């Protein structure tokens, strides 16, 4: 194996009269393996080379002046940003020919980061890092994974903090295929695969949260719809605007924060809507309990922990029948603990909400049933399921396996002592 580190000289990039000189620190980490060693390694890492087994381009210490942040001073005056980029790809053929497609141009990655940081303002560092990562992956199909770190040095806050940053690691598509290869290899390695599916535990603080009368805006008699979660465009939260338009007698509260918040606030301007921002602990528990109905329009939830938390707080749920939500609310529980509607079907969603809004007693009975159902989803129940099912199954399997291994030995011992003089075997 050859492990070299080649520094990138500043004078290797020809000066362009139309573009300012590019100053950057960069290096290449090269790891080379023989074909035999690579084949052996591939059999151990899900059919693909692990990130540590591929080459990496490194750009560190890139500095740009950007206008990103949530404060007006940041957007108006701007500040210095530091960007580090690590890109994983196969450089085994780089340099064997004169083709530049065998590698990646450092200057191109530099320009991508520069244009994004110095471009239109973003509220969050995460947005800047994701833009750099996604743009680079789209431009260079040779890259299998990329890590982007964006930071603000010497942040103007009180306390010991002098650097604020975020690190984003993105992969190209194909994760599903890699996971299937992992399962295939896992089956070949073991004698038996024991799989116990469980769920995320719901903290006990959501059991018994007290009802509060906040966010009334002078309209306490109107029922309150509540949504908890990240405010992102992928959550289909604009669907709730059409829902509220059809239900003029309700209020709605959004608990959480995210890049889509400003657009949502503009969208719901002049309507009985409240945006609380991020809440934690007891405040979050009270926020759940203050709602009359929890609404979840997202069609891409893998589990939907917020749905579990709402039901644990005794709040009936109206959610899209998509993603992992039907696993939480199976068909035999629909109409008892919660209601599901066809994804994107406005009429179906409004009909389910009207059914709950028409009767306070119905809402309370469904909320009570939801809370009782969620008792099986606390952390104690989740750990007991793993202990009772997985550990017991593993113990039973080993005992059975041991009995199979000992059976020929027992047979041989019986045969041996059966003909031994003066020894009886029973």
Short description:
The protein is built from 13 helices and twelve strands.
Characterise this structure.
It is an enzyme of class 4 (lyase). Keywords: Folate biosynthesis, Lyase. It catalyses: 7,8-dihydroneopterin = 6-hydroxymethyl-7,8-dihydropterin + glycolaldehyde. With 426 residues, the chain is an alpha/beta fold. Helices cover 38% and strands 19% of the residues. The protein contains 13 helices and 12 strands. The protein has helices at residues 35-42, 72-77, 106-117, 125-139, 175-189, 238-246, 261-267, 281-290, 305-312, 325-328, 346-357, 360-373, 379-418; strands at 2-7, 25-32, 55-66, 79-89, 145-153, 163-171, 224-228, 251-255, 273-277, 293-296, 317-320, 338-341. It has a 6-stranded antiparallel sheet with strand order 1-2-3-4-5-6. The chain has a 6-stranded parallel sheet with strand order 9-8-7-10-11-12, sandwiched between helices. The relative contact order is 0.08. The model is unreliable at 1-49 and 207-214 (pLDDT under 50).
**Biggest β-sheet: count, sense, barrel?**
6 strands, antiparallel
Between the first and last Cα atoms, what is the distance in angstroms? 62 Å
- Rg over alpha carbons: 30 Å
Work out the number of β strands: 12
Pathway: Cofactor biosynthesis; tetrahydrofolate biosynthesis; 2-amino-4-hydroxy-6-hydroxymethyl-7,8-dihydropteridine diphosphate from 7,8-dihydroneopterin triphosphate: step 3/4
Organism: Dioscorea zingiberensis
Protein name: 7,8-dihydroneopterin aldolase
GO biological process, one term: tetrahydrofolate biosynthetic process
């Amino acid at each position: 194996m050859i492990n070299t580190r080649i520094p990138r000289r500043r004078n290797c990039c020809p000066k362009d009269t139309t573009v300012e000189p590019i100053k950057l620190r960069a290096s290449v980490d090269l790891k080379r393996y023989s074909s035999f060693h690579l084949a052996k390694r591939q059999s151990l890492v899900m059919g693909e080379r692990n990130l540590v087994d591929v080459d990496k381009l490194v750009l560190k210490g890139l500095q740009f002046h950007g206008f990103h942040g949530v404060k007006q001073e940041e957007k108006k005056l701007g500040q210095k940003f530091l960007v580090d980029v690590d890109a994983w790809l196969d450089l085994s053929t780089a340099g064997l020919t004169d083709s530049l497609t065998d590698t990646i141009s450092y200057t191109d990655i530099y320009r991508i980061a520069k244009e994004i940081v110095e471009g239109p303002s973003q509220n969050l560092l995460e947005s800047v890092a994701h833009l750099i990562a996604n743009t680079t992956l789209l431009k260079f199909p040779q890259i299998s994974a990329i890590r982007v770190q964006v930071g603000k040095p010497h942040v103007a806050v009180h306390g010991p903090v002098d650097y604020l940053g975020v690190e984003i690691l993105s992969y190209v598509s194909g994760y599903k295929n890699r996971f299937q290869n992992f399962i295939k290899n896992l089956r070949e390695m073991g004698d038996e695969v024991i799989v116990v599916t469980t769920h995320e535990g719901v903290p006990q603080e959501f059991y018994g949260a007290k009802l509060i009368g906040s966010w009334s805006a002078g309209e306490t008699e109107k029922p309150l719809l509540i949504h908890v979660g990240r405010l992102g465009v992928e959550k289909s939260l604009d669907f709730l605007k059409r829902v509220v338009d059809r239900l003029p007698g309700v209020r709605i509260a959004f608990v959480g924060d995210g890049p889509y918040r400003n657009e949502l606030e503009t969208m719901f301007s002049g309507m009985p809507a409240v945006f609380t921002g991020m809440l934690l602990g007891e405040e979050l528990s009270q926020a759940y309990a203050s709602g009359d109905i929890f609404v979840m329009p997202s069609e891409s939830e893998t589990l939907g922990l917020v749905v579990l938390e709402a039901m644990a707080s005794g709040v009936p749920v109206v959610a899209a029948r998509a993603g992992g939500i039907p696993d939480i609310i199976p068909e035999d529980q629909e109409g008892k603990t919660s209601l599901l509607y066809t994804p994107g079907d406005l009429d179906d969603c409004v009909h389910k909400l009207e059914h709950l809004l028409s009767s306070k007693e119905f809402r309370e009975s469904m909320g009570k049933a939801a809370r009782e159902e969620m008792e099986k989803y606390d952390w104690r129940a989740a750990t007991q399921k793993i202990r009772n099912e997985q550990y017991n199954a593993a113990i039973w399997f080993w005992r059975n396996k041991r009995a199979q291994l000992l059976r020929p030995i027992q047979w041989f011992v019986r045969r041996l002592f059966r003909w031994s003089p003066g020894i009886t075997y029973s």
